[in-house]
Amino acid sequence: MATNKKPEDLLNDYKQQWADANARGDEAGKQAAHDAATALRQQMDKQNGTTSTYNPASGTWTTRPASGGGTSSGSSGGSASTARTPSPYTGHRGSRKKHLRTC
Hints:
Number of strands: 4
Strand content: 15-25%
Order of helices and strands: HHEEEE
Distance between the termini: 58 Å
Largest sheet: 2 strands, antiparallel
Strand order of the largest sheet: 1-2
């Protein structure tokens, strides 16, 4: 079935379908809406050269360039490296305890 809706509108439709299924206690309906939204996001990422990730803690999606090693807030003029300088501290993201890297 072809549609003329914008991807953002389709995502909103899938969110509503998920909410409706959740209200009914319909696990299969929730999974179907989730799978449809994920497939659409993957298609959009492929077309746009981006990568989307979901943060369950905040319930939000973040879209980043698929390559380049960092987040992008605009276009870059030139061929400067986007590699980050390594932090002198170790530990996973969100770790309260930071350990100084000694080597």
